[in-house]
Amino acid sequence: MPSSPTATLVSELESKAVVSAVTTPAEGIVELTLSAAEGGALPGWTPGAHVDVILEPDLVRQYSLCGPRGDTSYRIAVLLSPDSRGGSQGVHHLTEGDSVRIRGPRNNFPMLASNSYIFIAGGIGVTPLLPMIEAAEAAGADWHLFYGGRSEHTMAYLDHLRQYGDRVTAIARDQQGRLDIPGILAQPRPNTLIYCCGPEPLLAAVEEHSSTWPAGALHLERFSAKTVEREGADTDFEVVLQRSGKTIQVRPDQTVFEAMRAADVSVLGSCLEGVCGTCEVGVLEGEVDHRDSVLDEEEQEEMDCMMVCVSRCKGSRLVLDA
Ligand code: FES
What we know:
The chain is 16% helix and 33% strand. By secondary structure, it is an alpha/beta fold. FE2/S2 (inorganic) cluster is lined by residues 269-272, 274-279, 292, 294, 307, 309.
């Protein structure tokens, strides 16, 4: 459920939607149902997907789809952030009948097939996991949700989750403390996938305590950009844009995204902080200095794509499929 400050996306599937229902699944959280403005179905989606909600031309936020799978409307649940830069406030002001433009859906947090899952949610991070849980249940997979929150009345969808009985461990901090991540992940389990979404300290703890699990077991979705260690100052490099037939220079004070746009090369962008995955471009040659929060370590090592809004080049030249 990434959120972002900037909107510069140049073209992608955009839909006109209307707010068809508003509910309050927990204190400080509003759930909106968005339906196609002209009737019919909104584009299909898969568990883990998010949509861009375009509140204003320069105010776009990404929210996970949390409704039932196959729903032809979209459901999003949004926590009113105390330090909102306008996004969550804007969503909380929407009422039934309001029009809203949306883009996507897009899925950077796809659910892979497995016989066994551990889901770990912190607060509003439960939203992308709800359709995954439904899918796991429908597939007859073994699964368990560990869901932590500040207090029960701030934890959305607890009533809905009660139907799953002891598959769900809900821990309200004001009564039981925090989720015991070291305990939950103490025993690496083969063939079990971990899906986690929540605030950064939770994600960091899950990353740390799953380090002994099989490679590829952990799947995270971040709300905001993770801190990326940088070695030395940024330098300039050359980018060959194969399909456009252009070669551009990226200055140290410029991103690849900015250099592409300056050269009139079409590239999509939304968050511009390496979180949403909109600006992904294929890499044909060269070594990428990955700085995004979308790709996992394995995906980054494959060097076949990059988020051009933040990632750079480790050498002096990249060839991109753009
Ligand atoms: Fe969001 Fe690059 S624009 S990851």
